[in-house]
């Protein structure tokens, strides 16, 4: 049976969307292997021609920007539902969720927060950062987080501690399981917990356990 006119219009749009998604995934993988990966390399990774890439992105920089923003929005969406009655556990969950999202694209994640597109990435992550700030305010108010640093500064330091783990993970070729643990320890230590206390909290809280298959 011949395709209807509406079906003929839908198919190209669906194919275009699929190609765009394929390009973004391939670009993230190629750039994570080599941050200077060319469009030709990205096209090869995607199984498409360079012409197909240019059908969606006018320049390499435009593609890189889209990859970074797409990743930042995904990270932000994953952090949005993070919640716990104990502000310390919520901070640990914030760190472990962030780690789970970026562990497989560590190089790209570093570029996102420190590269030339960091302003756009920061805007995409703004809601998640606001949530972290609210958690810190609650923790300070209830006395479970340190009182000697202003909440605004403390929230930034906690985020910085989590990102520092990303740097160390790249240098030390750290496993996902170790990174999962260390990102929580770094965040909780910055928040004011002694390391033994943080260890005990992580060990006694089921929600903070590393997921199966995270050892690679």
Which key phrases capture this entry?
single chain; 216 residues; mainly alpha; Arc Repressor Mutant, subunit A; Tetracycline Repressor, domain 2
Number of helices: 10
Oligomer: single chain
How many strand segments? 0
| Residue share in helix | over 70%
Mean pLDDT comes to 87
State the end-to-end CA separation.
50 Å
Structural class: mainly alpha
CATH topology of the largest domain: Tetracycline Repressor, domain 2
Could you tell me the radius of gyration in angstroms? 20 Å
Strand content is under 5%
H/E series: HHHHHHHHHH
Number of domains: 2
Runs in which pLDDT lies below 50 for 5 or more consecutive residues are 6-11
CATH architecture of the largest domain: Orthogonal Bundle
Shape summary: elongated
CATH top level of the largest domain is Mainly Alpha
Please describe what this structure looks like:
The chain has 216 residues and is mainly alpha-helical. It has helices at 5-33, 39-46, 50-54, 60-79, 87-102, 106-114, 118-142, 151-172, 176-191, 195-204. The chain folds into two domains: 1-58, Orthogonal Bundle (Arc Repressor Mutant, subunit A), CATH 1.10.10; 61-208, Tetracycline Repressor, domain 2, CATH 1.10.357. The protein contains ten helices and no strands. Helix 1 (5-33) packs across helix 4 (60-79) and helix 4 packs parallel to helix 7 (118-142).
